Each structure stands twice: as structure tokens, then as C-alpha cells.
């Protein structure tokens, strides 16, 4: 039996704290509250192929798409361990098909992505292994539990 490679990643936003663990390969996570934001800043991190997702007339859907793209990109750069030194424009998603990502223009199917939306919060996970949604557990904790 080979060595076990365990990786973990954390993220938090407002009252949400997320811990993800992988028993093989790298993993990254980002969680964000969906809120009002200046969508003009999206041009700083969005690829040309992503801008149609931000040009919808529905303001709420525009916010959801913005934070979906943001959390996907953040989860990826955290999984690869590059942090914000990596150019977010170099990671491009098609929100209608998360089975692959373009990294610096090259299609990459090595990574697995999953997005969860719960009320006003978006959570994205990126992993080298296939993400089985049955293995994702949500647990609400109260600060008094600690």
C-alpha cells in the first residue's frame, strides 16, 4: 500500500466556515456570501468567454454568476497552491459545463469542480479526485458548541 496523501483547505465568509479534506490529491475551497458588488471589477479577473454570464439583465443572477466564477477561480488557485499571485484571468470557466477548465487557454480535464448554492451563499470545491456529492457533509455549528 502506497503512502496516503491527505490534503485539506479552509475558507470562511461571514458566518460560514468550510473545511474540505481529500484522501488523495489536492483540494481547494472558497465560500462567499452573495451580496451587492461593483460588477465593473469583474473585467479585472474574467476571461472574455465568461463575460456573457455577467451581462444578463437580471441583477440577482448577475451577482450569483459573479460569485460562482469568483469561488470557482479561488478554489482552483487554492488547490494548486498558488494563491492570488496567479492571474485569475488565466483560469476560465463555462458555467454551463464545469467538467473542464481552461488554464492559460489550454483545456484541462484533470480537475473536478462542484458548486453549492444555499440561500445567500455560494461554495465551490476543486479537487484532483472526482468529487462525490454524497461525501460532502454540511453541518451547522453554533459558537457555543466550542
Task: Summarize model confidence as the mean pLDDT.
Answer: 85
CATH superfamily: 4'-phosphopantetheinyl transferase domain
Rg to the nearest angstrom?
16 Å
Number of domains: 1
What structural class do the secondary elements suggest?
A: alpha+beta
Quote the beta fraction. 25-35%
Could you give the distance between the termini?
A: 37 Å
Assign an overall shape: globular
* Known CATH architecture: Alpha-Beta Complex
**Extended strand count:** 8
Counting DSSP H or I runs of 4 or more residues, the number of helices is 1
Strand order of the largest sheet: 3-8-7
Main pleated sheet: 3 strands, antiparallel
Written account of the structure:
It is a single chain. With about 150 residues, the protein is of the alpha+beta class. It has a single domain, classed as Ribosomal Protein L22, Chain A (Alpha-Beta Complex). About 15% of the residues lie in helices and about 35% in strands. Strand 4 and strand 5 (about 95-105) form a beta hairpin.
Write out key terms for the chains shown.
Ribosomal Protein L22, Chain A, 14% helix, 3-stranded antiparallel beta sheet, 146 residues, alpha+beta
